[in-house]
Amino acid sequence: MIVTPNMVLAAVKEKLSDAFPGETVYENLTPVGFDRPSNMVELTGLKLDPLSLGGGAVNLQYQLKVTTYCQVDEVHDSHLPTLDLRCMTILGAFAAGYVKAGDRAPKVTACAANTDGLYDYAEVLLTFTLAMDRSEFCPEEIMPLIENLNTKLNAKETVI
């Protein structure tokens, strides 16, 4: 089974929902007037581990960013120690070292928080690594997935 970026994104959203029950987890964008406290997760990159190239299997790395938000006051300042604790909670959510995505378990290979100079949010950068067969990147494997997504997108556009 191909582990798509959306499957990893969904697994991260599930972990965040477990860590912060009742809070909204946004995907890629926060709407105007979004809820606080909340989290947002977005895919920031995909890459092949250069040390794995050339063999039958390669290590695909999924890079994601979790932005965590807490309550702000009337001048839009938040409580920085609360942001620090929210980051620690997110780091702890991924301390098991993997997430479940389909029938696979991508490993957490990097997990770091950035709270430097951010006053109303903080960021946690995550990298997951999964060994995949090179054949999983062939057009014969990926094209049906792309066609399915395009069909869903086209159906969504006609409904609107």
Question: Please, could you describe this protein's structure?
Answer:
The chain has about 160 residues and is α+β, with helices and mostly antiparallel strands. Strand 2 (about 40-50) and strand 3 form a beta hairpin. A five-stranded mixed β-sheet has the order 1-2-3-5-4, with helices on one face. Helices cover about 30% and strands about 30% of the residues. It has helices at about 5-20, 80-95, 140-160; strands at about 25, 40-50, 55-70, 105-115, 120-135. The radius of gyration is 18 Å and the shape is globular. The model has no long low-confidence stretch (mean pLDDT about 85).
List keywords for this structure.
alpha+beta, 160 residues, 5-stranded mixed sheet, globular
Q: What structural category characterises the helix and strand content?
A: alpha+beta
Largest sheet composition? 5 strands, mixed
Span between N and C termini? Answer: 32 Å
- The helical percent reads 25-40%
Q: From N to C, what is the helix and strand string?
A: HEEEHEEH
- Biggest sheet: strands side by side, in what order? 1-2-3-5-4
Q: Strand share of the residues?
A: 25-35%
Rg is 18 Å
